[in-house]
Amino acid sequence: MRFLAETDSTNLDALRWASEGAHEGCLVVADYQRAGRGRLGRSWFAPPGTCLLFTLILRPRIDASHLGLINLAAAVALCEALADREVESSIKWPNDVNLADRKVAGVLSEHDGGVVCLGVGTNVNVASFPDDITASATSLSLHEGREFDRLAILVDFLARFDLLYRDLPGRVPEEFRRWCGTLGTEVRVALPEGTLEGRALDIDSTGALIMESGEVISAGDVVHLRQRGEEGR
Ligand code: BTN
Question: What CATH number does the domain containing 196 carry?
Fold first, then answer.
């Protein structure tokens, strides 16, 4: 395990460490990242000393079609760790963790050969966000009005993730459906080839999103247009 006061990105550290032979389960944790990486080439905002930022090195020996479920398992494990603290969260497909439709955590796994570097960033005790994300982001402390222990969340996450990961696909699809706020909801999906709107129905065995129209989306950015049960309002 490597605890770093400051680094560029724990994902980059993990990729470098894995290339030097780091075993499955090796973990990089940082208090601050100068160049935190987000999905779809974005950066990840996290002021020093406020967030839980880590990357877990995995060497999965599973069917390639199940690799996408690793990210989903991470989102489920985080929701479970938050529920242990009486925090109600939900997953926005594929693996954003939200508190009341504002993002509190994200997952970015980067692959190199047979290695998966699973990076998770959680806004724990962040007091404020930059203007461009202030409407869409939140932290545990802002939402709950109390401070949280970052390492305690990490320990619970790892225990929960381990159970899901050892047994993939196992309970992951079913647990994901339980936590996911996207299924049954009207969504807008930004895809490289354009935008698609419709009702998200389910996930398939690889974790891809199945739309009511029959389309199956393996990667994209989802916006929830209406929450479940809001139809007709
Ligand atoms: C997202 O865009 O939702 C994914 C964000 C992932 C951020 C985490 S922070 C720890 C790890 N290191 C990185 O550079 N990125 C991930």
Answer: 2.30.30
